[in-house]
Design brief:
This is NUDIX hydrolase. The protein is built from three helices and nine strands. With 164 residues, the chain is α+β, with helices and mostly antiparallel strands. Strand 3 and strand 4 form a beta hairpin. The model has no long low-confidence stretch (mean pLDDT 93). The chain is globular. The N and C termini lie far apart (48 Å). The protein has a single domain, classed as Nucleoside Triphosphate Pyrophosphohydrolase, CATH 3.90.79. Strands 3, 4, 5, 6, 7, 8 and 9 form a seven-stranded mixed beta sheet that branches.
């Protein structure tokens, strides 16, 4: 039976393009020291074969932080209790409805660090080719998901300010 609270489905993004997550989406910008956890997305996923942060569709009853932590546990096997959430920023949207696609979609990036300060072990699910702790200075050398490439400098700056 279909769960009416599931966020699985499309919404309207910039210029009316389809974006994943009927109720928006969220991802976790998880830092350990001067490294961030990145996911090499499987080719079959939305924006596949690019690098970005773990994340996905928000369910109707979830906050962006809850969604980001759930998706990170599903995609990376990192438990929420091993993560300290510091901030959350809407990094895309909201966008107007387009055709039969619902509007008001946003992407929220949740900024967090590992509780130990060290990179945590990860286990990738089928949505990833690879998970990697990438030094900040090497992130922009990867084939990044376009929206993440645009937001990365601001996210890095915000995280560095939070860690002072």
């Amino acid at each position: 039976m279909h769960n009416p609270h599931s966020g699985d489905g499309w919404a309207a993004g910039p210029g009316g393009i389809r974006v994943w997550g009927k109720f928006g989406a969220a991802g976790l910008f998880l830092v350990a020291g001067r490294k961030v956890l990145l996911q090499h997305r499987a080719a079959w996923t939305n924006h596949g074969d690019t690098w970005g942060i773990p994340g996905g569709a928000r369910d109707f009853t979830e906050s962006p932080t809850q969604a980001a932590l759930r998706e990170t546990e599903e995609e990376c096997a990192i438990a929420p209790h091993d993560v300290e959430v510091l901030d959350a920023q809407v990094t895309a949207g909201p966008y107007p409805a387009a055709g039969d696609l619902p509007g008001e979609w946003t992407y929220t990036t949740v900024l967090a660090r590992t509780r130990t300060g060290a990179p945590l072990p990860t286990t990738a699910n089928e949505e990833s080719y690879e998970l990697r702790w990438v030094p900040f200075d090497e992130v922009e050398g990867l084939p990044l998901l376009a929206a993440f490439r645009r937001s990365f400098p601001t996210l890095r700056e915000r995280m560095e300010a939070l860690n002072r």
